[in-house]
Specification:
This protein has 677 residues and is of the alpha/beta class. 38% of the residues lie in helices and 14% in strands.
Length: 677
């Protein structure tokens, strides 16, 4: 593969473009260049900036050429090297500089740094340090615009290594099959961190990958701002007219190394000849010379433009230097967004006059129906959502009632479908995304943690993520180690997520509606073994508040905190204990995060004994977490050590006889309880 630039200089074609636009594009590139050079000077030798900076020097024509076609309603998503995208889209330079200095006045209030820039009013919903991570978010924003019939587009800026990621291929396919208004801009700067294109690919064929997914593709000179502008203009017009997504490869070059102010020549990653050849093809110098030669700009006007840009960057630097650092007392701000009010009633207990028995799975199904009917911003997507058996009939009838736009079946693409839901939530929707088995969710961990959980905090509380992610626990049935998992404790470890685990039909419906109308990401885990259990639940829509536990059975001698399916086992054990004169209080937390520790502590202090029955593994799990918290806060006040009943610390077997030995039940709770008296 040829890593050298084209032998000929860019062919600028400006016919039909106004002088004001041409000068604006030159100014846009100059602003980015001077901004980045200023950062370079403050990285070394002064080291006044400590946040990692991935500089955009050499690639300015791409951001300016594309963003010159966009308006504030169009949304862009960027990556770790996105200072140029932010500035080209209209982001405030002072706010960006202050953020890179990690100051309170920064665009993300000092919580993001160089790689996490945001400007909601300008359609910049955030940049990410995860390679390829924002591509499905851009697809989700495009889906949001499609669902709401908005005349705007979503743009995913990404590097040449991203099409090598699985999530890019999943996302490109999703965008194509749904005909979404998304433009993929691949900035091929020839390197992935330090590895050149020629060592990563057998063929130089990024466009072929996009074409294979059904995207329209083109390759342009990324150092020619007019060529980029015209290609983007053409594709954006087609996208806005409903012709579906497109992919533009912009061949360019970053002058410096992957991160920081150095050029990598001293460590032998690139040749001096290669760098010099690309520097001689500087997109700004050549375009400036072209505008002077064709009379659009005089030499004096060019000098004045340079002075103007220099003064703007100096002012931004001064603003950043003089801005205050964040108040240390605010470091816990913006973990969760305060919820907006809904018109649904909030219930904690079942109304006295309500007598309606309904199955657990029917309660979930009814919650889906009522949520979709109540709010047109809610939609459902996932594998098999229009196929009742795939999700245990819990989505039966939804497709017929609400249509394919709002009940969307998708290919097998766990990471991209989750990221798409997350991106649409950032762009104003309230999606529910299904993972029919929790082991499939591992494939979406990047989106659930790096993006979903942290986004609101990372951008200073400006972009909320009201998404519900539903995972189904499939215990028993000889399904083996993978399909039988219940790894919800993994997600409970992550700040920014909320976790729901309903036990009764009443809670299955009320907590589902609370999750869907919460302004934060909520993981809703229902247990397939509970689907046929029955109980009372109101027919009308209602909310069960997150973070409120419930006392399933009162008692004064022993507290049993039981989670999900273990509540039934705890109640059985409590009945047997009562026959022996031991009254056990059974508490169902209902939500794992936030957890009602006040209720648990109050009961444990009253009884002096605590068992946690948790249908999951013991190490670093929720049972261990609750045990540690109670032991710490009630040290010296308990009558016996805290005990746990969990799965063995082993993969789950398939054989029925092995399952019977593996899974804990009421007898295990009873055995542990008897040992405490």
């Amino acid at each position: 593969m040829n890593m050298m630039p084209p032998a000929t200089e860019p062919n600028f074609e400006s016919d039909g473009l106004s002088p004001n636009l041409l000068i604006a594009m030159l100014r846009g590139m100059m602003r980015i260049r001077e901004f980045e050079l200023t950062l370079k000077e403050n990285l070394e030798p002064t080291k006044r900036i400590s946040t990692p900076c991935h500089l955009y020097i050499g690639q300015e024509a791409v951001a300016v050429g594309v963003c010159s076609n966009l308006n504030d309603q169009d949304m862009i998503f960027g990556n770790h090297r996105s200072h140029g995208h932010y500035l080209a889209k209209g982001g405030d330079m002072g706010a960006a500089m202050a953020e890179i200095f990690c100051k309170q006045t920064g665009c993300s209030s000092g919580r993001g740094g160089s790689m996490h820039l945001v400007s909601v009013e300008k359609g910049i919903l955030g940049t990410s340090s995860i390679v390829g991570g924002t591509v499905p978010l851009a697809v989700g924003a495009g889906l949001s615009k499609s669902l709401r019939n908005l005349d705007s587009v979503s743009v995913a800026f990404h590097g040449d290594s991203v099409p090598e990621e699985g999530v890019w291929n999943e996302s490109a396919n999703l965008a194509a099959i749904n005909n979404l208004p998304v433009l993929f801009i691949c900035e091929n700067n020839m390197y992935s961190t330090h590895l050149p294109l020629e060592e990563r690919r057998v063929k130089d064929n990024l466009g072929d990958l996009a074409a294979a997914h059904g995207l329209r593709t083109s390759t342009v000179d990324g150092n020619n701002v007019l060529e980029v502008y015209n290609a983007a203009k053409t594709e954006l017009a087609r996208i806005r007219s409903g012709e579906g997504p497109a992919f533009i490869e912009c061949r360019t070059y970053r002058w410096l190394g992957h991160v920081g102010p150095r050029d990598d020549l001293d460590v032998g990653l690139r040749s001096e000849e290669e760098v010099k050849a690309w520097v001689n093809r500087c997109p700004i110098r050549l375009f400036n010379e072209y505008l002077i030669e064709n009379g659009t700009l005089s030499c004096d006007e060019a000098d004045a433009l340079t002075d103007e840009v220099n003064e703007e960057v100096k002012a931004a630097l001064t603003f950043a230097e003089e801005s205050p650092k964040p108040d240390p007392k605010t470091y816990l701000d913006h973990i969760y967004k305060d919820n907006s009010n809904t018109s649904l009633p909030t219930l904690i207990e079942l109304p006295k006059d309500e007598e309606r028995s309904i199955r657990y799975v029917e309660a979930i199904r009814e919650g889906h129906h009522q949520a979709l009917a109540h709010d047109e911003l809610i939609y459902i997507l996932g594998q098999g959502v229009d196929n009742p058996w795939c999700v245990g009939t819990s989505t039966e009838g939804l497709l017929q009632a609400f249509g394919k736009n709002r009940v969307r079946d998708v290919p097998i693409c766990e990471n991209a479908m989750t990221g798409t839901a997350i991106g649409s939530a950032m762009a104003g929707m309230r999606p529910l995304v299904f993972h029919p088995r929790m082991d499939f969710m591992y494939l979406a961990m990047d989106q659930m943690i790096n993006h979903c959980a942290y986004w609101f905090y990372m951008f200073g509380g400006q972009v909320s993520v009201p998404v519900t992610i539903r995972g189904i626990i499939n215990r028993r049935g000889e399904q083996g180690s993978q399909h039988s998992q219940s790894p919800y404790a993994l997600y409970a470890h992550i700040p920014g997520l909320k976790i729901v685990m309903p036990t009764t039909p009443f809670d299955a419906k009320g907590l589902l509606l609370s999750a869907l109308f919460d302004d934060n990401p909520v993981l809703y885990f229902d247990d397939r073994s509970l689907y046929e259990s029955s109980g009372n639940a109101p027919e009308y829509p209602y909310l069960v508040p997150l973070g409120r536990g419930d006392i399933r059975r009162g008692g004064s001698d022993l507290t049993i905190v039981a989670i999900s399916c273990m509540v039934q086992e705890a109640l059985k054990a409590a009945d047997i204990l009562a026959e022996k004169g031991v009254e056990a209080e059974v508490i169902d937390p209902r939500t794992i995060k936030p957890m009602d520790f006040d209720l648990i502590l109050e009961s444990s202090q009253k009884t002096g004994r605590l068992i946690i029955a948790d249908p999951a593994w013991p190490r670093c799990g929720v049972a261990s977490d609750v045990a540690a918290r109670v032991s710490q806060e009630l040290f010296g006040k308990l009558k016996a050590p805290v005990q746990t009943v969990t799965f063995p610390d082993s993969p789950i077997p398939a054989s029925f006889v092995l399952e019977e030995a593996y899974y804990p039940d009421w007898s295990d709770i009873l055995r542990v309880a008897n040992s405490m008296f």
